[in-house]
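As a warm-up, study this chain.
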Amino acid sequence: MVYFAWVRERIGRAEENLEPPKSVATLDQLLDWLVTLGPEYRLALGDRRAIRAAINQEHAGWDARLPDGCPDGFEVALFPPVTGG
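Now compare it with the structure written out below.
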């Protein structure tokens, strides 16, 4: 897992290696599991409208499936929506 911007600040780390339960198959299920890890995760990830995700550096929707077995080199990034001008 890689966290960016205020997501990183609220969770308190830029990245970590996690092994979700085998029942976690989609990004949506991954976030459901992550928010159970503690209050800092709930604070950062509780409102999915304020979070975007990427799997292996490709933007993905909440229904995107995670690679089976979470192979080595597999990366999920969580970050706020990008704005700019």
